[in-house]
Design a protein that fits this description.
Layout: H1 2-23, H2 27-37, H3 41-58, E1 65-76, E2 83-97, H4 102-165, H5 171-208, E3 224-226, H6 231-241, H7 243-264, E4 270-280, E5 284-293, H8 303-348, H9 352-369, H10 374-409, E6 414-416
Antiparallel strand pairs: 1-2, 2-4, 3-6, 4-5
C-alpha cells in the first residue's frame, strides 16, 4: 500500500511538472506578444500617421479666394446736370501660385518628418524586444536562484530542527546552534528577496506584453550563446545601421531643405484670377478682365529666417558628429562588457555550479555526521548561492550588452543554445 501511494504521488508531481512546463513561455514568444500588444506602439504609429498627413498638406495648393461687392451708386455732375443711381456688383476670383520649387521643398521637409517617425518606430520595436528578452531571462534566472535559496533554506531548517532536539553540552555546541539559526534567518531573508524580485520582474514584463501586471508568468529559457565581435567591424556597421546616426542624418538633410525653402521664400507668391464688375446708374457699365496681385519685397527679404535656418543646419551637423562619437563610445564599452561577461559565463559553464550544488549537499550530510566543521558547512552554502547569483548577473549583463550592440549596429550577436 505504501509503495502504491508513493508511486501515485510521484506520478502526480511529474504531471504537474510537465503541465507547468507547457504553460511556461519562451523569451521569443514573449517578444512576439509584446510587439503585437504593447500599447506604447500606438504612439509611434500615430506619429507616422501625423507625418503622412503633413506630407499631404505640404503637397496641397492653397484654396482659391472669391471676393464679391454689392452696393448702391449715386452719380451727380458738379454743374448740376443729370444724375442717376443704381446697383453696383463686383466679383473677383483669384488663385495663389507659389514660387517654383516651394511646394517641392515643403513636401521634402514633411517627408523627412515621416522618415524620422518611421525610424523612431523601428528603434522602439528593437528596444522593446531587447527589454522584454532581458526581463524574460532575468525572470528565469530569478526563478533558478529562488529554487537554490529554497534548497539551502530547507536543509538549514532541517538541521536547525535537529540541533534543537539534541541536548546541548558545552559552549561550542551552543554557539554553533546560534550560528546555524542566524544563517537560517539570512537564507529566509534571501528567499523573500528573490521571490520579490521575481514578482517585480514579472509585473513589468506582463505590462510590456499588454497584460495585467499580476498575471501568472513562467519563463522557460535556454542558455545563450554569444558571438565574438570586433570593435572596428561594429563601428563600420553602425555608420549605416545605427538609428541614432540615421535619425541625425535625416534631420540634417531636412534642415538643408529648410535652408533652401527660406531662400525660396524671398520671392513672393502671385495671385492670379478673373474679375467682373457691373455699374447701373446713369449708364450701364460692365468690366471684365484678369487681375494679378504681386507683393513687393521691399522691406522683408526673409534674411532673418535664412540666417536662422543656416544656424539650425550647423547645429544638425554638430549633432550628427556627436552622435557618431557617442555611438562609437557605446560600442566600445558594450564590446568590453560582452567580452568580460562571456569569459565569466564560460568559466561557470565548466560544471562549477553543479559541483557547488553537490558540495552543498555533501557538506550538509557530513556536518550532521561530524566529519566537517561548521565553518566549512556555512561557507559552502553561501558560496553556492553567490555562484548562482554571479552566473545569472553575468548572463544578464552580457545579454544587455549584446542587445545594445544589436540596436546600434543591426547585427545579431546572441542566440539561444539548442538543447539536445
Amino acid at each position: 500500500m505504501s509503495i502504491h501511494i508513493q508511486t501515485k504521488s510521484f506520478t502526480a508531481s511529474a504531471i504537474l511538472l510537465v503541465y507547468a512546463s507547457a504553460l511556461a513561455e519562451t523569451p521569443e514568444a514573449l517578444v512576439k506578444r509584446a510587439l503585437q500588444q504593447n500599447p506604447e506602439l500606438n504612439f509611434f504609429v500615430a506619429e507616422i500617421a501625423a507625418a503622412k498627413g503633413a506630407v499631404r498638406t505640404a503637397d496641397t495648393l492653397r484654396n482659391p479666394e472669391l471676393s464679391s461687392e454689392l452696393g448702391y451708386k449715386n452719380s451727380r455732375e458738379n454743374s448740376g446736370g443729370a444724375s442717376g443711381d443704381g446697383a453696383i456688383l463686383a466679383l473677383s476670383f483669384s488663385q495663389s501660385l507659389e514660387y517654383p520649387g516651394r511646394i517641392v521643398l515643403r513636401k521634402a521637409i514633411a517627408n523627412h518628418d515621416r522618415v524620422v517617425a518611421e525610424l523612431h518606430l523601428q528603434q522602439f520595436r528593437l528596444t522593446l524586444a531587447a527589454r522584454v528578452r532581458s526581463l524574460a531571462y532575468a525572470l528565469s534566472g530569478a526563478d533558478e536562484r529562488t529554487k537554490a535559496v529554497q534548497e539551502v533554506t530547507v536543509r538549514t531548517q532541517a538541521l536547525n530542527d535537529v540541533l534543537k532536539q539534541r541536548p546541548v553540552a558545552g559552549v561550542a555546541p551552543q554557539l554553533e546552534a546560534q550560528i546555524i539559526n542566524a544563517n537560517l534567518l539570512t537564507f529566509q531573508r534571501q528567499e523573500r528577496e528573490s521571490t520579490l524580485a521575481k514578482k517585480t520582474i514579472a509585473a513589468e514584463l506582463n505590462q510590456l506584453c499588454g497584460r495585467s501586471a499580476d498575471a501568472n508568468l513562467t519563463v522557460n529559457a535556454n542558455p545563450i550563446v554569444f558571438t565574438r565581435v570586433s570593435v572596428r567591424g561594429l563601428v563600420e556597421a553602425a555608420r549605416s545601421n545605427s538609428f541614432d546616426i540615421r535619425i541625425r542624418q535625416a534631420e540634417l538633410a531636412q534642415q538643408g531643405f529648410k535652408v533652401a525653402l527660406s531662400k525660396n521664400e524671398r520671392f513672393p507668391a502671385i495671385a492670379v484670377g478673373p474679375f467682373y464688375s457691373l455699374e447701373n446708374s446713369i449708364d450701364r457699365e460692365q468690366r471684365a478682365g484678369l487681375g494679378i496681385s504681386v507683393p513687393l519685397p521691399l522691406w522683408d527679404r526673409n534674411l532673418g529666417n535664412i540666417a536662422s535656418s543656416k544656424a539650425r543646419q550647423q547645429q544638425a551637423e554638430a549633432s550628427l558628429a556627436m552622435a557618431a562619437r557617442e555611438v562609437e563610445r557605446r560600442i566600445t564599452q558594450a564590446v568590453a562588457t560582452l567580452d568580460a561577461k562571456r569569459a565569466e559565463i564560460e568559466a561557470w559553464k565548466t560544471g562549477a555550479l553543479a559541483k557547488l550544488r553537490e558540495a552543498s549537499e555533501l557538506a550538509d550530510r557530513n556536518y550532521r555526521l561530524g566529519a566537517v566543521p561548521l565553518t566549512t558547512y556555512v561557507e559552502i552554502q553561501k558560496q553556492y548561492l553567490e555562484a548562482i547569483s554571479a552566473f545569472n548577473d553575468a548572463q544578464k549583463e552580457a545579454l544587455e550588452a549584446a542587445q545594445a550592440l544589436e540596436i546600434l549596429t543591426g547585427q545579431k550577436l546572441c542566440r539561444e543554445e539548442q538543447q539536445r
